[in-house]
Amino acid sequence: MRKLRFGILSFAHIHAWSYARVVKELEEAELVAIYDDNPERLKKASETYGVKDTYTDYRELLKRDDIDAVIITSENAKHAELAIAAAEAGKHMIVEKPLATSLEDAERMIRAAEKAGVKLQQAFVMRYHDATVTIKGILERGEIGDVLVITTTNHGKYPGLWFGDPELAGGGAVMDHTVHTADLMRWYTGDEVEEVYAVIGEKIRSELRVEDNALISLKFRKGVIGSIDCSWSRHEGWPIWGDVWLGIIGTEGYIVVDAFRSCINLVVDGKPLTWVYFGSDCDFNMIRDFVRVVEEDKTPRATGYDGYKALEIALAAYESSKKGEPVKLPLR
Amino acid sequence: MEELGVALIGCGFIGGVHLGSWKRVKGAKLVAVVDIIEGRAKRAAEEYGVPNYFTDYSKVLEMKEVDIVDVCTPTYTHAEIAVAAMKSGKHVMCEKPIALRLREADEMIQTAKKAGVKFMVAHCLRFWPEYVAAKRIVDEGTIGEPRIARAYRLSPFPEWAPWHKDRRLGGGVFVDMSIHDVDFLRWALGDIESVYARGGVLKTRDSTAHDYTHAILKFKNGAIAYVEGSWIQPPGFPFTTYLEIVGTKGMLTVDNHTTSAVRIFRPGAPPTDFTPVEEDAYYKEIKHFYECVVEDKEPMVTGEEARKTLEVVLAAVKSVEEGKPVKLPLGGEVL
User: What is the ipTM of this complex?
Assistant: First the structure.
């Protein structure tokens, strides 16, 4: 069997490390080359995954004919440049979320991929988590009747690194943590958001240059009500990085998804309690599915358009918070 | 200690809970119960050993031996009964919400002042063990300056009281149920500046009262909160609450299931979770009011405090209906 040959463009995003691990694990994939604009990080990734072909210029990596696909896990603001170059070089791609930091960039990326005839998969790993996939089936079979309300949280700790740099990240917690559950709500309802109201709170960590907490209220076109708490509101010492939580109220039932709650309680003498996750490996599922999408010429489960629409909700949240009023979609 | 006579009006669910608590307060003597349904008044009198029962509340207002009136009637009757009781010189404890209209709340507050009687609204979370502990943690500064909070209160529709389906009689889920969380958050985090809410009558047939509402509250000190009230949980869903407060130095969470001391499974019913304590929240609340009367102290939840909480939940109803954030103070009545 021919393996799908991957390059990874940047290890700036923490998820890059997990994706690299998956590409190494997958029988049908091979990690061929990596790029990073940070030489130290590049060296560390090269050593961690035993990848000899390293680049500090992504154009050199993209020139290689023996690379089929790339995973773009740079800082958010650099996605567009890398993705457009990758498309022009004929590479299929997975792009970390959020797709971009502006709708203009997002649209340019989608257009470039379309023009080049390459796959652009948005890394909405939550569409590949076995818990959320199971619930998708339950909802599609109408087991809880019609969905009325979806309440969600994507809490986290402050991720550090460049996530606090407004130029590189495009924002703070709203940019980082709105899109996953916004996308799940779009996926579950098969509907688009019509109106967004959001309030960004005063910072939990006063030293940050970006917001670290916010609350978002949504209304979908067909009437479903939603909400998102996208806050980096978990302090150091909380037993896990955060959560993806959904409460789904239907006319005939109620579902709670606590996707990362499947954990062992672990204490090492003298240290705080930690939770060791044993649930679904959504990163693995996502990349395995991407390989299939490329091999069988399918449409990704989460496309560039899905990334665009989720980003639009995050950007509308910023606008709403600034104006103090609900904002109607589409923004453009 | 001086013995005070108590009359309780409204022998429904919460009336029964209060009767049980009054029974335990040393120095308080239940002298009469009232319910417009005679059989219910009679049963309550028998069960709690109360010497008199009536169907007309004005009867207890004439009784000299009644010092305290506990109003446990449906919300839409609170103002009329409380004001009449105060005018008869009775101290009044009134179930939440204080009323459904701000002018009614104002009249209650003014009448209590004029009559020189004690007046408290029974916002029971202020006596609920986990909420009292959470409030203490916030006050002690352990989690720093509060920044963002979440509070849920989820249940099937309260079919046991038909007036809940009439928005002008019960106010709907946020006014009746989320008022608990709003009052607690005001107590712990301070005054609220503006409210945005979404919801409506999503599921319950024949209801004019909202059965689902979520709200985003902005506090004067810069904190924000998400408060969700649902009466559209499926039948049999166990009553569920959740509280989370995140501050600059730490955070706290508590819910009513995972921290319960006792869980009981009965055939065909959802598990019941609770934490028995000898002095439960209702007993503490009622004993507190009794002590306020005897010792001439200001009650924990004054009419003014309850009015502020009412204003917030009414603002949420207004926001749902207008689709816009609502700044406080409210300009007029909502229901």
Answer: 0.95
